[in-house]
Amino acid sequence: xxxxxxxxxxxxxxxxxxxxxxxxxxxxxxxxxxxxxxxxxxxxxxxxxxxxxxxxxxxxxxxxxxxxxxxxxxxxxxxxxxxxxxxxxxxxxxxxxxxxxxxxxxxxxxxxxxxxxxxxxxxxxxxxxxxxxxxxxxxxxxxxxxxxxxxxxxxxxxxxxxxxxxxxxxxxxxxxxxxxxxxxxxxxxxxxxxxxxxxxxxxxxxxxxxxxxxxxxxxxxxxxxxxxxxxxxxxxxxxxxxxxxxxxxxxxx
Length: 253
Ligand code: ARG
Hints:
Layout: H1 2-21, E1 32-37, E2 40-41, E3 45-47, E4 53-54, H2 56-68, E5 71-76, H3 82-85, E6 92-93, H4 101-104, E7 107-109, E8 114-116, E9 118-123, H5 131-134, E10 138-142, H6 146-154, E11 159-163, H7 166-175, E12 180-184, H8 185-194, E13 199-202, E14 212-214, E15 217-219, H9 224-237, H10 240-249
Parallel strand pairs: 1-5, 1-6, 10-11, 10-12
Antiparallel strand pairs: 2-3, 3-4, 7-15, 8-14, 9-12, 9-13
Arginine binds near residues 41, 97, 142 and 184.
């Protein structure tokens, strides 16, 4: 009897698990798309006045949700945890996330929706101007980002110092704890504007940084990839995408 009960329990638990974690798109029920972001990246995502994530990416994924007939729920989490959570805790991620070879090993990406560049923020009186000048510096970056990997791997002698929030790296630049910050262009512009009496923003091109492309990350092999791509195409064709660029991004450049 005991054995039977134990087996029954095992079967029940298995079935419960299969229903809860079924397939690749574990977090979603049919009509809900759970999307992870990291709302520390203006103007793409930040915490809005009402305390909820807002920004270009959030508005874009909500429009995509409408096209797919799905309700979008946004989960704010650390940037470095997003990729691993796709397919379990979250169904997708939109987070100004650059398509990289390494990420492609564990997720699929939608078509790219935005071109990005790494920029450099320095204190207002800094002489840093070339790639040579970045060597052997303390470089503040957001953890898990392409900027962090550039500082950590591509710049001789540099020390990459990781922060959960990009803005904290900028604060430490102002405090003199780091010599420069490497972060994507648009947040760099927003932070540069916010602290314009203390820092200046330098174009990544002068350091030879390559162009990156943002895309929505989805579970490997997910049928959502095609659906999201179609939705993106429609939103570009009907002007919605451009309206969001105007509303969220162009005012901040
Ligand atoms: N584009 C960079 C990357 O993919 C930084 C993205 C950071 N995004 C964020 N929401 N904090 O690594």
